[in-house]
Specification:
Layout (H helix, E strand, L loop, with lengths): L3 E7 L4 H11 L7 E7 L7 H7 L5 E5 L4 H11 L4 E3 L11 H11 L5 E7 L16 E2 L14 E4 H4 L20 H11 L4 E10 L9 H17 L4 H20 L3 H19 L4
Parallel strand pairs: 1-2, 1-4, 2-3, 5-8
Antiparallel strand pairs: 4-7, 5-7, 6-8
Length: 280
C-alpha cells in the first residue's frame, strides 16, 4: 500500500494545527504516512505540540520564509512518500480517508492524482465555494470547481520539476494572493498527467464567514486572473469568471450586506486586473 507525505504549511495557528494532527492520529487502518510541518512562525510555539505527536506518527519540522508557495516547495523537496498532499493547517481528515485513498491509488495505477470534495463538518461547500457533485476527469475547463488546496493528493513520481509558483498565493509579497494550487495542477495537466476528481472522498475545512474585506477579495481575484493569463485562457474566460462575482456583488447589495458586496466586486475587478495587467 502506498505511503503518504502530508505537507502542512503553517503560521500563527496552533489549535487548528493540533486538530488536524489529531485527525491523523485517529485514522483507521492507516497506511504509512509522514507529516512535514513547514513552520513559518518566528518562534518555537509548535515545538511542544510536535513533540507530543512524534510518538504516534513520523513528524518533521522544517522552516521557510513567509509565503505559502515557498513553504510548499520546501516541503515538496523533502517529501519521500509515494503520494504527496498539501493539507491546510485548519482542515481535518475523516478517520477512513487515507485508507480509502490508498486503496483507490492502488486500484488505479494510471491515476496520477486525486482531488476530493471539501466541505465543513455539516456538509456545506468550503475552501473554494461550489464543487462538482459527480466524479470527473480534471481538465482546464473544470479545474476551478474540482480542486482546492486541501483536496489535492498527487503521486510524487509524476511531480518531477513541477513546483508552486512563488509569485502566487498568501504571503507571496505580490498582488496575486491565490491560485497557486490551480497553477500547480495546470502544470501537471500540461505534462499530460491524469487527475481524477472523486467527491466520494471528503476533506473537512471550515467555511469562511468573514470579515469580508475588499482587499482580500482583490488579492484573490488577482491571483485567479494571473493564472488564467499564465496558462493562456482566452480573455472571455476571465470576463466570464469576473461576471460571476459581479452577480454575487449585486445579490449581497440587495441583501443589504455592503461589506460582502464590496468583497465580490473587488474579486471581480481583481480577476480582470490579474488577467489584463501583465506584471513581470
Amino acid at each position: 500500500m502506498c505511503r503518504f507525505s502530508l505537507i502542512v504549511c503553517t503560521v500563527t495557528r496552533t489549535a487548528e494545527l493540533e486538530a488536524f494532527l489529531g485527525s491523523l492520529a485517529a485514522q483507521k487502518q492507516p497506511p504509512a504516512f509522514e507529516v512535514i510541518v513547514v513552520d513559518q512562525n518566528p518562534d518555537d510555539r509548535l515545538a511542544p505540540l510536535l513533540d507530543r505527536c512524534r510518538g504516534r506518527f513520523p513528524v518533521r519540522r522544517l522552516r521557510s520564509e513567509i509565503g505559502l508557495s515557498r513553504a510548499r516547495n520546501v516541503g515538496l523537496a523533502a517529501a519521500s512518500g509515494d503520494i504527496v498532499a498539501i493539507p491546510d493547517d485548519d482542515c481535518t481528515y475523516p478517520p477512513d480517508l487515507l485508507h480509502r485513498l490508498a486503496a483507490y491509488f492502488d486500484a488505479n495505477p494510471g491515476c496520477d492524482g486525486v482531488s476530493t470534495l471539501v466541505t465543513d463538518r455539516d456538509g456545506s461547500f468550503s475552501a473554494g465555494g461550489y464543487m462538482a457533485g459527480s466524479p470527473l476527469a480534471i481538465d482546464r475547463g473544470n479545474i476551478w470547481r474540482t480542486a482546492v488546496s486541501p483536496s489535492i493528493f498527487v503521486r510524487r513520481s509524476v511531480v518531477g520539476e513541477v513546483r508552486f509558483d512563488e509569485t502566487l498565493g498568501v504571503g507571496s509579497g505580490t498582488v496575486y494572493g491565490s491560485g497557486e494550487e490551480s497553477d500547480f495542477l495546470l502544470q501537471l495537466l500540461e505534462h499530460h498527467r491524469r487527475l481524477d476528481y472523486r467527491p466520494e472522498f471528503v476533506v473537512h475545512h471550515p467555511c469562511f464567514h468573514g470579515p469580508w474585506r475588499a482587499e482580500r477579495g482583490r488579492l484573490y481575484g488577482n491571483g485567479m486572473g494571473r493564472v488564467l493569463r499564465k496558462h493562456r485562457y482566452p480573455a472571455w474566460r476571465a470576463m466570464f469568471y469576473a461576471s460571476l462575482q459581479l452577480v454575487r456583488a449585486v445579490q449581497f447589495l440587495l441583501k443589504l450586506n455592503p461589506s460582502r458586496s464590496r468583497f465580490h466586486l473587488a474579486m471581480a475587478l481583481g480577476r480582470l486586473h490579474g488577467y489584463f495587467h501583465v506584471r513581470h
